[in-house]
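for the writeup, i need someone to sanity check this before i put it in the appendix. the sequnce is what the collaborator sent (i think, or maybe the updated version? ugh). structure was predicted straight from it, no edits. if anything looks off just tell me and ill rerun, i have time this weekend
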Amino acid sequence: MMPRMAKIGALALLALGLLNQPAAATPEPRAAQELLAAHNRYRTALALPPLRWSAPLAEAAQRWAVHLAGLGRMQHSGSGENLAMGTAGAYSLTQLVDLWGNERRHFVNGTFPAVSSTGNWVDVGHYSQMVWRGTTTLGCGFARGRGQDVLVCHYGPPGNVMGERPY
């Protein structure tokens, strides 16, 4: 039988180990609705059709969010993807989406990649993906690890297509 202090010490070590591992937090229906509403607010302002939730896109985004939470840094998995990272618990899902939406202040509806008043499309690439007319579906994943929250959103079909106008 393990002495009481040894049990407490073992539990503390286990808890510390778990705190350093990425925690999957697949968006629940309420979270999915919040993410859709946050995205569609920007689309509605431009009279664009609302995005619909895609379970397959959400599953892929969730896997990538868990991976990034384990890495502790952002790295794209491919096109049609927005990433956000912030201090664990400091931001709501809507606030993370608004980080991308705030790029609209530099956005111009030109032919991609000429879509930014700064001359660099990267300054508005998250926003332009959110409002890309040809994008119809959205799926997001969320994970926490290394003291960070990670939001990954995948869009289908992907936007930011060279030679095309966002809307």
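The helical segments are 4-19, 29-44, 55-71, 93-101, 125-130. Strands lie at 23-24, 52-53, 81-87, 137-145, 148-156.
thx in advance!!
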